[in-house]
Amino acid sequence: MLADLKYRLRALLRRDTLDRELADELSFHIEREVEKHVRAGVTRAEAERRARVEFGGVEQITEDTRTSRGLERIDALLQDVRYAWRGVRSRPGFSAAVVLTLGLGIGANAAMFGVVDRLLLRPPAFLSDADRVHRAYLNYMWDGAQRTDRNFEYIVYTDVTSFATSFDAAAAFSYQQMPVGRGTAARELMVARVSASYFDFFTARPVLGRFFTAQEDVPPAGENVAVLGYAYWQSAHGGSRSVLGEQLHIGEVTYTVVGVAPRGFVGVTDGAAPVAYIPITTFAYARDPAYATSYGWSWLEMLVRRRPAVAFAAATADMSAAFARSWQVQHEQTTWLRPVSEAKPHATISPVHMARGPDAGPNGRIAAWVMGVAFIVLLIAAANVINLLLARALQRRREIALRLALGVSRARLLQQLLMETLLLALLGGVAGLAAARWGGGMLRALFLTADDADAVATDTRTLLFTATLTLAIALLTGLAPALQALRADVAGALKAGMRDSAYRSSRLRTGLLLFQSALCVLLLVGAGLFVRSLANVRAYRLGYDIDPIVLIDTNQRGVQLDDAQRNELADRLHAAAMSVPGVRSATLAATVPFYSFEGRGPPHVPGRDSLNLLGRYILQSGSSAYFETLGTRILRGRGFTSADVAGAPYVVVVSQAMAHAIWPGQDPLGERMRFGSFGGDTTPYLTVVGIAENVSGRSIGGAPEFWYYLPTLQYRTMFGAARGLLYVRVDGRAGDHVETLRERLQRELPGDSYVRAAAFADVIAPQQRSWRVGATMFVVFAALALVLATIGLYSVIAYAVAQRTRELGVRIALGASVARVVRMVVGQGVLFAITGIAAGSAAALLAARWIEPLLFDASAKDPVVYGAVAVVLLIVAVVATARPALRATRVDPTIALRAE
Amino acid sequence: MTDRLDLPQGTLDLLILKSLSLEPMHGWAISERIREVSQAVLQVPQGSLYPALHRLERRGWIRAQWGASENNRRAKYYELTRAGRKQLAKEAAEWDRLTAAVSLVLRMA
Questions:
Q1: How far is B15 from chain A (nearest CA, A)?
Q2: Which of the residues A29, A37, A54, A62 would you substitute to probe the B interface, choosing the one with the greatest number of B C-beta atoms within 10 Å?
């Protein structure tokens, strides 16, 4: 087998040498034959004649020998390739149209495959036994609803991993931005806090030094060792080998570099590559020395590897039991945790991809949808190409009939025709990869987090996918036209030429066109729905302003401040911010919507109980200008004033939803409430002085949230210090003030502390991201589909008109008016469009059920969208047919008739 | 001169392999050898010899090498490979069985 392949390869690559050798061999044979005859006493001339006669035709033998080399198939194939290439080159316009169309379709799919593969399919680089590695999630009942957590306390991690027996490895990890470096050189960079066991999940070996060991990662405090990420090692240390032993400041701690992770290693994150890996125990001890034995700080994600012999369901049950046991222990130690019987803690273990876990964001789902959309675009492109090829096949009937008549076998002819499509598809595939590479950057930015190391559309998997897709498309688009071409009735085609028989067999083309316009309608409807959904998201009032606000936070390092000092610093920052030109107002606050919440349990209201069953309560504190700064409207009563200071009567403002829930049908103004068990029984009663509009801080468009607001000064008397957040309302664009504010406030900070300032809009934007992604992708692909469908419609109508030149000429000659002919041609296009609209709308309505959950506050059966799409498609139909129609009217009857 | 026989289908390969089992040979020598050994009964059709040689080489049963011929010219010598030797044994055994079976039938009839 191998010898055979080697021989054939040699035969293929060294064809000339082999031919020369064969010639030598044959002439040697004849020479010996001649000698033999001469020896037998014949004259030389006679001997040569005899030898040649006996031997037969040298040419024939050469040919036969070549055949026996096993090259005839390859030869034929090469011949077909050359023939196909000539065909491709001889019609550059046609070829370019096909290549471009396929390129767009294939490119869209290649690019999306890269994203979907990354989000949902491909295991993280270096991960071994990926099918047995799971992320662990904990589900439990809370406030009457099931919640899912994937972040755990260190003690829960050690509990669960020691209780559960179904796993042969476990690791804890947490990726977060941390200040790296010191002083003004400090930057917020991604740092992976990981257990030493984390590295065991991967086949990765350090390129330099070593990973840290289990002995360096033991509670209470691990060693101060760090492993650098490859990219950071390159950028910050120039890939220097002397980096080992160097010091690196991360957060509050100085670490010694002991190793460098290999290129491409990021662990299991979808996000930015970490600059360094540090032991969880080292990091945690610096933050809270009691972390290893106390509950309340859930920060670690968990990775487990199932034993090969344990089934998935059994492992899940085992994990659930471990969680329940840990919960029970925790319940006994803390007062506020619900008992196991109520909370019903149980585990989910899922593939390592976040997008396939129980708390996946919509990214993975939307990416899968968009992949489907990209595939539809490809189908539309394929339909176009089939139409083009069908037209070509009709034009080539004569040529093909001629070749059939000359004795070329149908199989060979089919192979040739398919080869031409394959060549076009391959070119399209290359164009597609180029397009995917170009568009890949955009997709990456939309779906994956920035600086994802490997570029979309260049990895082997994407290339393989693209190659397979290209071959499939070549077959799909090539087969029907080729078969149709071969169906030619030889005699008839030769007799009639191409003029007559062409227009008949267009049922397939009509079908394709309808299929195409229906798919196009489907995509346009999808795009319309997503655009409307995005508009709804944007227009949705969150209960606070976003655009004119700058959010300021401080990171305090190198100083230990007590509550009084922290409060004093916060007030100083507040005053400094107010002094910056362009600032209209500013307020201190405790939380940022979508990022941090302060919950102090359900409030205590005289005469009311079971308030915990109503929902979650979110506490915010603010200065006297809180409501005017954030733009949250006070619906009744008042906001805070400068009189709400420590010592003054305690006041509280509650959100409308909370007021309705606690005091249904009553006037809440003047009512009193107090912090429940979390605040202790010693906190004073607060009097409700105002009702604020509802705000969204947990989810956009979710259930109304219960927010209540305390004046910062009064909050401090109860809880000491609040987190010193600052909202600043500015004139003009928030982004223009960020740097000024940061510089001004930085001056107030002690030690290594630094100020973080950002436009509030940038902070909130990620919450709208999935809707924006959906809308953008649908619009882009639907536009692509529309362009392709328009080209398809145009080419089919134009072709039909060209074919009917004679008929139209006759009609005009017989007195049909120009308007009538135009109406006839355009009418045909409009009929296509209407049928497409009907079919596409029906398909869209069927798909509505699945698409609706992805939309924001929009019905998937929105008649406005369907109507708009219908109008767009009708306009396209008229525009696409207008040119051919006008050309038809210019048919000169005499020429048309003479063409016969 | 005895009448010449055309080679039955498929036997040419067997004869070539058998000839080469004794020593490496070039194409002309092979056809001469078959003729001589069969006492000129078997005539190798010259037109099929070379395609057969190349086919056998492709299958890896024989391999070719250029060498000097007895009259000191460059000639292509073929020799049997290990696979070829095995193939020869197999084909020879099949041939024996076939001829034995055929003659058995003929004698019975």
A1: 18
A2: A29
What SS3 class is residue A789? helix
User: Tokens standing for A858?
Assistant: 């929009």
Q: Which of A420, A575, A323 is nearest to A83 (CA)?
A: A420
A142's enclosing H/E stretch is: strand A133-142
* Cis amide linkage into residue B8, ω under 30° from 0: no
CA distance B108 to chain A (A): 40
| Residues of chain B positioned with their CB less than 8 A from the CB of A55 | 46-47
- Is the pLDDT score of A189 beyond 90? no
How many angstroms separate the CA atoms of A646 and A60, rounded? 112
Contact A196, A271 (CB under 8 A): no
CA A111/CA A443 separation, integer angstroms: 7
| Strand order, beta sheet including B74-80 | B25-26, B74-80, B62-68
Say whether residue B65 is in contact with chain A using an 8 A CB cutoff: no
Buried b (16+ CB within 10 A) or exposed e, A758-782: ebbbebbeebbbbbbbbbbbbbbbb
> A161 pLDDT exceeds 50?
yes
pLDDT-based confidence at A453, cuts 50/70/90? very low
b (16+ CB within 10 A) / e for A672-682: ebbbbeebeee
Nearest to A354, CA basis, from A305, A313, A301, A276:
A301
Which candidate from A25, A36, A64 shows the least CB-CB separation from B27? A25
Nearest to A158 by CA among A16, A330, A398: A330
Choose from A64, A66, A67 for mutation: most chain B CBs within 10 A.
A64
Q: Report the largest interatomic distance among the alpha carbons of chain A, rounded to a whole angstrom.
A: 141
A251: region left, alpha or beta (phi > 0 left; psi from -120 to 50 alpha): left
Amino acid at A62: T
Strands A187-194 and A276-279: what pairing?
Answer: parallel
Pairing of strands A686-692, A672-673: antiparallel
| Amino acid present at A561 | L
Give the pairing of strands A651-655 and A686-692: parallel
Task: Determine the Cα angle at A118 with ends A772 and A466, to 5°.
Answer: 100
CA distance A329 to A331: 5
For residue B57, what are the contacts with CB-CB under 8 A and spacing of at least 6?
A: A7, B63, B64, B78
Q: In this complex, is the C-beta atom of A72 within 8 Å of any C-beta atom belonging to chain B?
A: no
Q: Pseudo-torsion of CA A122, A127, A132, A138, nearest 10°?
A: -90
- Please report, for residues A30, A718, B77, the alpha-carbon distance to residue B74 in angstroms, rounded to integers and kept in the order given: 14, 109, 9
Could you say which DSSP state residue A336 is in? S
pLDDT in tens, A254-311: 999 999 999 889 898 877 789 999 999 999 998 888 888 888 788 899 999 999 999 9
Residue B71: list chain A partners with CB under 8 A. Answer: 32, 35
3-class SS of residue B50? helix
